[in-house]
């Protein structure tokens, strides 16, 4: 359970820092257009901090964290969110500085989304396993 707390805390700090980075970078560069930096703050707070606080509550209620599916969820989801957020930061910063993006950035961000999806699949499989009232299929 503690790693869920720490993950939520780290994403809160990163989300707040991302908001400050966006505000200060665009102000210093006098940038007024659209950039992915605008959504980075929200992504980190919602998909990071809030999401892990909800999973913490689910863990407290159902004991999710005691199995391999949970471990796979935790590492896939974190790796995917970190990769996606990093590519948002890179792409957004390039936009502010007027540098053209590359297909590699989109590809790496896509890999991040795939990892997040794998994490969510493992979370739901693990949650199904611990929900009360689940009948064993073999017992009929």
* Total individual domains: 1
- What's the order of the H and E elements? HHHH
Number of helices: 4
Rounded Rg: 18 Å
Shape: elongated
Major pleated sheet = none
Q: Tell me the structural class.
A: mainly alpha
Multimeric status of the protein? single chain
Q: What is the β-strand count? A: 0
How big a fraction of the residues is strand?
under 5%
Low-confidence stretches: none
First and last CA, distance: 34 Å
| Percent of residues in helices | over 70%
Average pLDDT for all residues: 94
Please, could you describe this protein's structure?
- The protein is mainly alpha-helical and 140 residues long.
- The protein has one domain.
- 79% of the residues lie in helices and 0% in strands.
- The chain is built from four helices and no strands.
- The model has no long low-confidence stretch (mean pLDDT 94).
Brief overview, please?
The chain has 140 residues and is an all-alpha fold. The protein is 79% helix and 0% strand.
Can you lay out the helices and strands and say which pair or pack?
Layout: H1 2-28, H2 37-62, H3 68-96, H4 103-130
Short key terms for the protein model shown above:
single chain, mainly alpha, 4 helices, 79% helix, 140 residues
